Amino acid sequence: MRVACFCCVGLVLSSLADAAEHQIKPGDVPQTILDQAAAGDRIVFEPGLHVHHLGKHNSLLYVDKPIEIELKAGATLKLADNETPLETVAEITTDHGAPKKLDDLSVGGEYDRSLKHTVYTISIDGEGRDGSPDTFSWGVGPLFNVQQKGVAITGEWQELSCGVKIRFDAITGHNKGSLWFLSYDGPVAYGIRIGHGLQPDYIENVRITGQGTIDLNSQNNVQPSELVKDINACVLVHGRVRHVQIEGITMTNTNRSVMLYGEHTGKFLAGGGVTDGEYFDAEHIDIFRTRTINPRGSAYLLGHPSHRGHLRFVRCNFNYMETAMTSIEPNFQLDQYEVIGNIIKSGGQAIHCWRKSTNGVVVDNVRIEDSTGKPVVVANSPGGWEPPAQLTIRNNRNLLSDHKSDAAPFWELRPSE
What we know:
Layout: H1 2-18, E1 21-24, H2 30-36, E2 42-45, E3 48-52, E4 59-63, E5 67-71, E6 75-79, E7 91-94, E8 105-109, E9 118-126, E10 135-140, E11 148-152, E12 158-159, E13 164-168, E14 179-184, E15 190-194, E16 203-210, E17 213-215, E18 233-238, E19 241-247, E20 250-252, E21 256-261, E22 263-264, E23 279-280, E24 282-288, E25 291-294, E26 300-302, E27 311-317, E28 320-323, E29 328-330, E30 334-340, E31 343-346, E32 351-354, E33 358-363, E34 366-367, E35 377-380, E36 389-394, E37 397-398, H3 410-413
Parallel strand pairs: 1-2, 2-5, 3-6, 4-15, 5-16, 6-17, 15-18, 16-19, 17-20, 18-21, 19-24, 20-25, 21-26, 24-27, 25-28, 26-29, 27-30, 28-31, 30-33, 31-34, 32-35, 33-36, 34-37
Antiparallel strand pairs: 7-14, 8-13, 9-10, 9-14, 10-11, 12-13, 22-23
């Protein structure tokens, strides 16, 4: 047994000795350097501002091999200004939680950009009887805003506003409450992306570490709507990926700091099901001691209802975050995970477990700077989806609202700037 252990150590040391280190200075093209690096090499972003346009798979850096990436203190990997402009073609988001008799909405016209980044809400509000057509309501701006009700479906193009037109293929046969959203927003962008979702072989043994920053520059770029299938992230893990560690870095100015999800080639069914197809699963992913400073967005999305592969063995522990919206979101198809010891300042939910995330341990998390009594953990699901299951939730504190006499003071919990 000892001989086997020594042999194993020898192989590891040999592998480390063979690995090369590649320095990336401001102005260098990181994708070229990574593409030329061998599996197991290490690439290091030196201090300074690394501003880049989007490249492979809509990312600043696409990873498809075992590699270690370090962002040194003072190094910032940043999306260039005006890289993602407002688009005039809508993305349709349909509600897969509740069954639809018909899903036949099309969008046309040419959006005039007058409302900038916006979302239209369209809902069937009446089922036709005795030969009369079904009717719909619509609104633009805040979600579920209603500007017109009871609009009869004609089967032809019908104008809403700002040049936007919609058409239903069928005049009747829809069920009341069927819901669609039309998002006019920016194209997707990622900082470091591991996997594109449908890669046939596993990408594994990737480490992203250091004290540097990934900045997706949302102030000078149009982001996707949070409703659409693909949104921005500083780090994305997608498809057949395993054994990834994300540690120490700071992430800012994006929809989400880290997103993880698998993929599936089947057709989506209501409530989370899929037709026959192939799974591309992600597993064994650690997010430790990172910082998310995201005053207009969210933080960690673990699983996704529009990417239906499995996600297993995830640890999101001991991170610090400041977000406008939900900070940590264990979501659909996530199984066997930890959310432990995080410090959360959020304008929305702190931790929201939903859409049947299963076998989770959510303990010892602290919500700070909230005196309104918001919960630390919420576990539920939207209509038509199964709720989270087999969760262990304990000892999560809202530091100001819980009034615990033995709670540590805020200045002892918050990392130094």
